[in-house]
Amino acid sequence: MRVVVLGADGYLGWPTALHLSARGHEVVAADSLIRRRWDVLCGTESLVPIASMKRRVERWKQVSGKQIVWEKLDLTSLPDATALIAQYQPDAVVHFAEQRSAPYSMISGPHAVETQVNNVVGTLNLLFALRESAPDCHLVKLGTMGEYGTPNIDIEEGYIEIEHNGRKDRLPYPKQPGSFYHLSKVHDSHNIMFTCRAWGLRATDLNQGVVYGSGTDETDMHSELRTRFDYDDIWGTVLNRFCAQAAVGHPLTVYGKGGQTRGLLDIRDTVRCVELAALNPSDRGEFRVFNQFTEQFSVEQLADRVRAARRAHGLETSIDHLPNPRTEMETHYYNAKHQRLLDLGLVPHSLQDSLIDRVIGLVERYKKRIKPELFAPRVDWRFGGGGKIAAPPKRSLHVATAPSISARG
Ligand code: NAD
Ligand code: USQ
Which domain holds residue 113? Predict the structure, then answer.
């Protein structure tokens, strides 16, 4: 396949680009590099030093003999999105390119607006670019399990059969997202579903759970191929944060009671799931949803797993229950289906102590770069970021002048 990977400079986009290239697909990697600027604004930084995209693709060519084409591009520019799709005519587009932090989206009004404009406008531009230049291309879009929230019934994969007043239908599963970021994914899902119905596009929404792990076989091949590792309060995901905290002897920061339950997966499964989805495209006009996670854990269970892995080496780790900065249920029912990727052949990695040891080992190597002040949460769902994190810079949206109605006939 020829695959365009959008968001290819990110934690998941870069390993996915490498994985697809290693498996013989033609890869075009695109990113605006905005995440590196968001890090500066938040006072955060990948724990593992990451090479520039130019350097990464050069190193990959040298290590593997394979070429990845690199394009710097902001998806919020409609002309740029259109030109990219028209130039490469991809079989599949894998879309990771969004502001993906829930805490970032809850800092202030401008951060919420920036998140939703970046994500919703970027995805809309991509949909128009696909309609214009590659209507047969399969869009593989990264959504999130957080679109569903934590309902008191089983979570299905995208759709639910409902019987109401004696009539039945298969309808989109109800959405109860927990942040302005998670809401942006819901808005994307609706826009994509609509364009499948209205224009006959084909798309798969991968409602992914929380990812953990420090890399993949390909990122481990050379220090300049490593992907980012976030451990801070804004970008760090829960298990990676707990591993970083354990590595430096900091108490694990469980928010509230810790009964919050989420679907999780190993980063090595993310890259495989994306490839499986791309290799098995949906039909024209079909909006398909896969729940992309492999196991579910409560936050407390994750903390216990990290503590047990340390104890196996004779090391004690303490757990702090901090007041929860988020508005979320701390004890609740959670049972989410995740069968469809298994049906396509996913052989999942379950969470093992050896993986926790590996992540902690990586953190220990870069432990001098840890800023312990980034372990405590700075953003509160009710009161925002208290003005301590810089406001996003003003960005203009490069929306092309629309052709006149008469010109389009
Ligand atoms: P990341 O922040 O590491 O990477 C996202 C990349 O997208 C960054 O390199 C950024 O520069 C780029 N980007 C953002 N907006 C862009 C735009 N308008 N134009 C071009 N590039 C842009 O995030 P990640 O952890 O790799 O997540 C990738 C995707 O997967 C996101 O959509 C996220 O919502 C989804 N996801 C992530 C997780 C997780 O645990 N990391 C879980 C579920 C879903
Ligand atoms: N949590 C703690 N302590 C911490 C960090 C988090 O208890 O130090 C808790 C949170 O309160 C939450 C859970 O752990 O209940 C998960 O938090 P997270 O920061 O790991 O994940 P989240 O904010 O949901 O976002 C991450 C990614 C996002 C992706 C999402 C998948 O940043 O891009 O969409 O995971 S999901 O959670 O399934 O929606």
Answer: 2-216+267-294
